[in-house]
Amino acid sequence: RLSASSKNIMTDPLVPSTFEWFQSIELGYEEEQQQQQDCLNKKSCWYCAKNNNNNDNDNNDNNNTSTPLSECSKCHVARYCSRDCQVADWKKSPNGGTAHKFTCAALKRVGIHMQITSPDDQASARQDIVFRIRFYACPYAVNKSITLGRGFLFLQGTSTLAEMSLPTTLNPLHNNNNNSNNNNVKQRSVLLHYLTLGEFDSEVCRDDFELATVRDRLKQAVDSHDIEKDMVVLMRFRCGHVAVGTAPLVPDYGLCKSLGQQYYGTGEGASSGAIQLNLDDV
């Protein structure tokens, strides 16, 4: 983890919007996608957890009272039993969750079934993920490129693109598989590994031939990108979404080089292998 002094150096940098995506494919992992189909709670108020029994097909007790729920007019995902609950959740979510004003736009992008199908929305989601880890990923990529030469950052997500793109894990009461008394939330993390094309062929494609389908475009990006301005990124998520692109070095090559040496070391003292980042801690 970067020291506090290192973070202060990079406070509020001007981040250029020069992300460029060259190729994306869907490997179609149906089992993982199916688990996302009904992952958001449509039966309870997102603030007070009051149930709408009419939405429960398994509830045959006609004596139970129901509370009509209204959805957020912006994201059409969050649901509330009253205007008071909606206003309160917009400002501060209960049980340690994040206020809805910080998650509304991202929830609109993924929808109630937590899937992103629009190419533009997929590109935006990938950019958001890289942007969140830029203070760690950029120095790491620059530091490795000095030692290993031209290569790319291989980013593997522990969950689907949709779930990883949310700005925070959802409050437990928002999940159908959890109740309001369960404060356990699914941890989201990314594994970063800097690879040369030779390592990609011998270590990755040998065991995972599906990724070989993006090799040609990956090679073009690695051979042609400006190593002092951007880094090549190969992203893969558990839903089967794979993408190749370039991301800008933030804030610049010189500072990334300095921070990479400070954080990861140089020469024989340099750290080797991959690094894992908890997406909710960066």
Q: What key phrases describe this protein's structure?
A:
282 residues; alpha+beta; 8 strands; zinc ion binding; zinc
Describe the structure.
The structure is a single chain. 33% of the residues lie in helices and 15% in strands. Strand 2 and strand 3 form a beta hairpin. It has 2 domains: 200 residues, no CATH class; 72 residues, no CATH class. Helix 6 packs across helix 10. By secondary structure, the chain is of the alpha+beta class.
Quick summary of this structure?
The protein has 282 residues and is an alpha+beta fold. The chain has 10 helices and 8 strands. It folds into 2 domains: 4-38 and 114-278, no CATH class; 41-112, no CATH class.
* Shape summary: elongated
State the helicity in percent bands: 25-40%
Radius of gyration: 21 Å
Total strands: 8
Residue share in β-strands:
15-25%
Task: List segments where confidence is low: pLDDT < 50 over at least 5 consecutive residues.
Answer: 1-16, 54-64, 177-183
Distance between the termini: 9 Å
Topology pattern, helix = H, strand = E: HEHEEHHHHEHEHHEEHE
The main sheet comes to: 6 strands, mixed
Q: What's the number of domains?
A: 2
Strand order of the largest sheet: 1-7-6-4-5-8
Domain MYND-type: 45-104
GO molecular function, one term: zinc ion binding
InterPro entries: Znf_MYND
Organism: Eucampia antarctica
